Amino acid sequence: MASKEELKTAIHAAFDGAVADGTSYTKVYAAEIKQKNFIVFRTTTVSNFAVGFRPGQTDLVIVPLEEKSGTVTAGTPLTITDANRAAVKKRDLQGRFVIKTTEGQSFKLSILPSVPKLLAASYQLPVDQKAEYEAFTALRDSLTTA
Q1: How confident is the model at residue 121 (pLDDT cuts 50, 70, 90)?
Q2: Is 43 exposed, middle or buried, given 0-12, 13-18 or 19+ CB atoms closer than 10 A?
Q3: pTM for this one?
């Protein structure tokens, strides 16, 4: 498995390649974990994202990510602006940041300052992003008080 720093660099490179002027964004890794309980078994689906933002602005760009053997590829970016942002919650019952768009898309993102390698077993990517996390919490707080 790639190191935490190599994965962080790969996540940033994938975002920069998918988003015009991507290098001007602060980027944070996020995961969305969905569980479905059935009578006999439970399924868990983990989706990985890079969330880009510019300090002092309220626009977000969410890029889905796929990781395989340390190689990170980006999906189609979604830009969320004041015009298409429907709702924002600082935390839901599981402590996730929740954002919804006017088009009906919803993201329940877990964003941690450091994702330990132990959580990598559940398909979250292990990264250290303390500075980026602090910048994101400032943006999150401004979105939830607006």
Answers
A1: low
A2: exposed
A3: 0.86
